[in-house]
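Recall that a protein's primary structure is simply its ordered list of amino acids. Everything else, from secondary elements to tertiary packing, is in principle encoded there. The following example makes that idea concrete.
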Amino acid sequence: MNINGSMTVQSGNGAASLYDRITHLYDLTFKFNGYARSMKRYLRRIAPLTLPDDARILDAGCGTGLLTLSLLRVIDRPARITAVDLSSQSLVKAQQAVRETATAWPHVLDFTRANVLSLPFADESFDLIMTSGALEYVPLSDGFRELARVLRPGGHMLHLPVKPSPASRLLELLFRFKTHSPREVDQHTRRHFHIIERYRFPPLHPIGWTKIAVLARKK
């Protein structure tokens, strides 16, 4: 497995500075709260999605690598996976996490510092896009428009929005983001995508407190 990194694309902002400061704590939280296990189960559930050989996959807002690692453990065929985030410290942690796994995956990984509103990729570059915890920091219409731009027609998007709840209100204060109602998420998703399913994680799963999964296909 090849791992490449680029840390010079785009300047930081308030959210990036916050995550640069709390990267270690944020990473420890996700290592022990069970989110990764929930994600791995769900990705196995949708694994039958047809991806071409050498598929190009984008993890938009990868943080410390939770989704990236979960995906690596599920996909069997070689793929080219690009993980982007605005927090340089989070990207360093994500690369470290991938290197520390002893598995020799047949994939090429690239970690790039980039803004989800201005992705440094050509139109229709990816076959699959995953995003979690990124669109809560940007206007939904702009975020979906940019993700749709870099996804090929017929490609799939997996979006894990934070659903409004008492727990998410606390998270909004801690991490300075804004949750969107399921109705808003569906409305903006449908402008560019056909929604395939809206999955609710089991309530007893840690991820079930705040997350749902919206699987969609680009029109």
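The chain has one domain: 2-218. The CA atoms of residues 37 and 70 lie 8 Å apart.
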